[in-house]
Amino acid sequence: MDRFIIYGGVPLHGTVHISGAKNSALPCLAACLLTEQPLILENLPAVRDITTTFHLLRTLGITLEENDVQAGASGIPARRRIVAHARQITNVEVPWELVRTMRASTLILGPLVARCGQAQVSLPGGCAIGARPIDLHLKGLEKLGAQIAVEHGMVIARADRLRGARIYFDRITVTGTEDLLMAATLAEGETVLENAAREPEVRDLAGLLTKMGARIDGVGTSTIRVQGVPRLTGATHGVIPDRIEAGTFLAAAGIAGGDLTIEDCCPDHLLAVIEKFRELGLSVESPTPTSLCAQCENPLRAADMTTEEYPGFPTDMQAQYIALATQASGPSLITETIFENRFMHALELVRMGANIRIEGNRAIVRGPTPLSGAGVIASDLRASASLVLAGLAAQGETIIERVYHIDRGYEHIEEKLRAVGAQIERVSS
Ligand code: EPZ
Prior knowledge:
The radius of gyration is 21 Å and the shape is globular. The strands form six sheets. A four-stranded mixed beta sheet has the order 22-23-1-24. Strands 2-15-17-16 form a four-stranded mixed beta sheet, with helices on one face. The chain has a four-stranded mixed beta sheet with strand order 4-5-3-14, with helices on one face. The mean pLDDT is 95. A hairpin with an 8-residue loop joins strand 4 and strand 5 (79-85). It has 429 residues and is of the alpha/beta class. The chain starts with a strand and ends with a strand. It is built from 14 helices and 24 strands. Bound molecules: ligand EPZ. Ligand EPZ is lined by residues 23, 26, 104, 130-137, 171, 173-176, 315-316, 338-339, 381-382, 409.
């Protein structure tokens, strides 16, 4: 298993380029199941979850042809392009081994049932950050007329023809909205998704589906209306930049000092993060619609933060925020409202010298505290990112084990950081 070795205390200077959004690429890849024509997707990030999804689609009989439009140089992502062609679906079963690797495999449920009238997908089970049930996905599919059974840990879904319905989500769910949005595009009649997720990744998926001939209104609001159509066609679509990767590099500039230019990003998708980082004392400017400049000229000052569904402060930036708050003067109260166990990184940060107290879904961070390098273990994707950030600020050497977690969602993060001066290297053992 690979590990990172980081020598901290080095300010960052230069430009980083943001890759395509993993959480947009995943549903967009699943959308290829909705048509027997080829789907061309561009700007896919070279991250493990995308590779896992390629494997998953191939087990269903999908052909995937990949070519890099622009091979990446050091620190610059390869603008990967894939032609996904679900001419025939020869298998509708997604085994536990695949879902265990990546719970977002459940995104193929809706498209498979809509296209083939059946799907068998292992229940994902919990993960490091929470129970993460998919009950809302299943309730929504039943509303559309699917018969759902759960046997031996497998969800078995069947439907002769999906029929449009009004679906109300008890909780806002990103992949639940995406799963049912895809299913609704081929359902007979109108589907209304109430209390739908408004994330940019949902909007990006809807943009792709519309190019494929779907009829969707209200995306980006909490009420999405879909008029079902008999079939969808192929399309070409570039996925949006990864807002969480861009936010992570903003945090890197804040915690390590120096000044960073972040290119190929979408500042409009990061307004809550930018405002909160400015409140902490980071100077953030947006010189162009696709770039950000971050400088940490003054000492950081504490600021409370609560995670919320989009357009609020994203839960996927909470761990990075906590790392930054350890260097801010005063107490910062961080409240996590989306997942029930998303403070695993705090325990490792305390081992590096941070002063963090966890009380239920709240973390009280008291700073600034000097961080010292230590051996730490990554527990999940965004927790790993916060450990990298802490390593950039810590005095001495930090060794981060199990970096496969970070490889799931960040494209060559160590290369991008090294390109702007960080002393970080990947050691394979
Ligand atoms: C998506 O996960 C993202 N993953 C997550 O990013 C992100 O943290 C999350 O949305 C919240 O923004 C992808 O898009 C692939 P949810 P998702 O359904 O869809 C509860 C990362 O780091 N819920 O919006 O699985 C659930 O337990 C990952 O890139 C139900 O109760 O999250 C949670 O408390 C981590 N029943 C809340 O809703 C359901 O059927 C929000 O979950 C579905 C969800």
